[in-house]
Amino acid sequence: MRLPDYLKRGIINTDKTKKVRALLKEHGLHTICEAGRCPNKAECYSCNTASFLIMGDICTRNCRYCNVQTGKPSALDSNEPQKLALTIKALGLKYAVITSVTRDDLKDGGAEHFAKTINAIKNLCNDVKVEVLVPDFKGDKVAIDKVVGAKPDVFNHNIEVVPSLYPKARPQGSFERAMDILYYVKNTYPNIVTKTGLMLGLGERKEEILEVLKKLKAVDCDIVTIGQYMQPSKEHLEVQKYYKPEEYEDLIQEAKNIGIKVPIFAPLVRSSYQANLALKTIIDS
Asked: Is 272 a domain residue?
């Protein structure tokens, strides 16, 4: 399928993007912006926002839509939390998204490393808002408590696709587990902002999308992002449909009718897109 013009973005090189890449290289750090080939990275960098990928760039799972490498990860870098905090300070960021590969090889899935990273950032840059986008930790509530206990400003866990697509898109994941995590966090820590994201274009029906939105309302998820899936390579799942911009506008209205507080839906929306503005909307409401 031909990529529609509204999904095309040229490569943008600015002083800001060059500075980000240079600091990442200097400290041996990764961003999901680069690893995931995000089309919005230049825009986010210019708005003092970046999404960092911790615990290496090799994932222990093999989701059929994801561009991140899969294989045997290396040992954790104990200095990474401090190096990341220093990088955020050097870049003058005001909002940082911290995500990771899935580390099923670690006993706690890397939850303690997440907590150390949040603490390092908060200690060095106390005016920076921190959003965590976490894996499912195999549903381990103790691991989740470790992360939330470090007091991130936003807790994000993506459901990624509608339930019927899990067997082919996320064979090692579970829709029910993902929903249970969102429910557990909001029910146990009612003051934290919760968030999730969904991709479209893999063969889902509109009825399935609306049903997911209703389930997210039922667990009181604050922010929902929805964007177009784009095939990273021929080895990944093929796109079944490119949704038009007006279809996203219609979905926004339906989400608001369902009761979703902050729906951020558009073709190029990714999980951390306009993350700082979404949080501000929740705070101001």
From this structure: yes
* In a domain? residue 3: no
Q: What is the pLDDT of residues 176-190, one digit of tens each?
A: 999 999 999 999 999
pLDDT in tens, 70-129: 899 999 999 999 999 998 898 888 889 999 999 999 999 999 999 999 999 999 998 999
Q: Which residue type occupies 105?
A: D
User: What is the domain range of residue 37?
Assistant: 11-284
Task: Tell me how far apart the alpha carbons of residues 24 and 36 are, in angstroms, rounded to a whole number.
Answer: 15
Question: b vs e for 90-122, b when ≥16 Cβ sit within 10 Å of the residue's Cβ?
Answer: ebebebbbbbbbbbbebebbbbbbbbbbbbbbb
Q: Decide: 57 and 35 in contact? Cβ < 8 Å.
A: yes
Task: Assign 3-class secondary structure to 256-277.
Answer: HHHCCCEEEECCCCCCCCCHHH
In the chain, the number of structural domains is 1
Q: Where are the alpha helices (DSSP H) in the chain?
A: 15-27, 32-35, 41-46, 80-91, 111-124, 141-149, 166-169, 175-188, 206-218, 245-258, 275-284
- Tracing tokens 């049903």 back to the chain, one arrives at 211
Per-residue tokens: 159: 């459901």
CATH code at 269?
3.20.20.70
**Residue count (the chain):** 285
pTM for this entry: 0.92
Examine residue 1 and state whether it is found in any structural domain, yes or no: no
How many C-beta atoms lie closer than 10 Å to residue 70's C-beta?
14
Q: 6 in a domain, yes or no?
A: no
